[in-house]
Amino acid sequence: MTERFGFTLKATDGKARTGVIHTPRGEIRTPAFMPVGTAATVKAMLPGSVRETGADILLGNTYHLMLRPGAERIARLGGLHRFMNWERPILTDSGGFQVMSLASLRKLTEEGVRFSSHIDGSKHMLSPERSMEIQKLLGSDIVMCFDECPALPATDEVVAKSMRLSMRWAQRSRDAFGDRPGHALFGIMQGGVTRDLREESAKALVEIGFDGYAVGGLAVGEGQEAMFDVLDYAPGFLPEDKPRYLMGVGKPDDIVGAVERGIDMMDCVLPSRSGRTGQAWTRRGQVNLRNARHQDDPRPLDEDCTCPACRGYSRAYLHHVLRAQEIIASMLLTWHNLHYYQELMQGLRDAIAEGRLAAFVAGFHAQRAGGDIGPL
């Protein structure tokens, strides 16, 4: 255990990296996938079950928690870790992305964003200073600076204006965060899909100085090819001795491609959201358990998986409880998806450490290309 935040890079394979982020609440093995606990819970999972999948860190959502139950209330109750019974590291986003999605309910100024709650219409102000205050009240181990995330596609003029506002907000976030040993503040690179703007953003952030750096503003409508084009160069603008976090990504092939390009951390609601809608992620790609072809299939979802859904239940049962709208369906499929994601991350870490990432990635794509085969 350490009393301060730090990052140790252990091995590289091409641009890909594996290492350890050190925090007072425990180590985070990288590349890392962070399950999303939007409202202080990973939906359909107990915290201990999330840990059993292999997760080292969770993500909480500043916007949702400030509205309900409220950051001040969580602080009075002992902080977010105690509140949700998760004693390992927590990263909280700044609230900027959620506010972006409320375009019809917000007013953006240099000061910050005034918006109406999607819950009850109440009025709120979110600024860099208020975002830092909320995340401190929550007790986040990794705090994200407040930024604006424009939806893509957008003109370079719009993206540049937004990015420069985010860089001014990054400086204000840094000033408001102050000196908090054991807690980290990450800056967020913006700039859309334009190389010069990405480089300008990275230089501004490095000059301010952060404990880690995120690549923001991707996975917002630009498509995988455009995202990978940005990731071919953007991580290289950031310091090698700091963690690099790609926000809001993604599908398994997005994750593999991002790791190949030098990303250390990722988060996405996809594995838990998919679990609640009958979608499973496996070595052979995505499987829709609602499909009638599963109703008489006695096989497990994935013969090589050791999660509870695959160890104890057939595809026929999973199909049945989904169609019957039983809660156990969301529980089992979410557990499976999170287990698969964490197994994928461990495979990537091992492959990078052993210098065989190219072979691992080739096998990953080849197995998915074969598709999900039916019962023999």
Automatic annotation (TrEMBL):
- Pathway it acts in? tRNA modification; tRNA-queuosine biosynthesis
Which key words are in the record?
Glycosyltransferase, Metal-binding, Queuosine biosynthesis, Transferase, tRNA processing, Zinc
Which residues of this UniProt protein bind substrate? Answer: 93-97, 147, 190, 217
Task: Please list the residues that make up the active site.
Answer: 93, 267
Where, by residue number, does Zn(2+) bind?
305, 307, 310, 336
GO terms (BP aspect): tRNA queuosine(34) biosynthetic process
InterPro entries, from UniProt?
ArchSynthase1/Queuine_TRR, TGT, TGT-like_sf, tRNA_ribo_trans-like
Question: Which Gene Ontology cellular component terms are annotated?
Answer: cytosol
Q: Name one Pfam family in it.
A: TGT
Which co-factor is required? Answer: Zn(2+)
* tRNA-guanine(15) transglycosylase-like domain segment(s): 15-368
Q: How is the cofactor bound?
A: Binds 1 zinc ion per subunit.
* Swiss-Prot/TrEMBL catalytic activity: 7-aminomethyl-7-carbaguanine + guanosine(34) in tRNA = 7-aminomethyl-7-carbaguanosine(34) in tRNA + guanine
Q: Which GO terms describe its molecular function?
A: metal ion binding; tRNA-guanosine(34) queuine transglycosylase activity
Q: Where is this region: RNA binding?
A: 248-254
Query: For this protein, what is the EC number?
Result: 2.4.2.29
Give the highest taxon in the source lineage.
Bacteria
Q: Which family is it part of?
A: Belongs to the queuine tRNA-ribosyltransferase family.
- Function of this protein? Catalyzes the base-exchange of a guanine (G) residue with the queuine precursor 7-aminomethyl-7-deazaguanine (PreQ1) at position 34 (anticodon wobble position) in tRNAs with GU(N) anticodons (tRNA-Asp, -Asn, -His and -Tyr). Catalysis occurs through a double-displacement mechanism. The nucleophile active site attacks the C1' of nucleotide 34 to detach the guanine base from the RNA, forming a covalent enzyme-RNA intermediate. The proton acceptor active site deprotonates the incoming PreQ1, allowing a nucleophilic attack on the C1' of the ribose to form the product.
Query: How is the subunit organization of this protein annotated in UniProt?
Result: Homodimer. Within each dimer, one monomer is responsible for RNA recognition and catalysis, while the other monomer binds to the replacement base PreQ1.
Q: Which HAMAP family match?
A: Q_tRNA_Tgt
Q: What is this protein called?
A: Queuine tRNA-ribosyltransferase
Q: Which organism is it from?
A: Pseudogemmobacter humi
Q: Give the source lineage, highest ranks first.
A: Bacteria, Pseudomonadati, Pseudomonadota, Alphaproteobacteria, Rhodobacterales
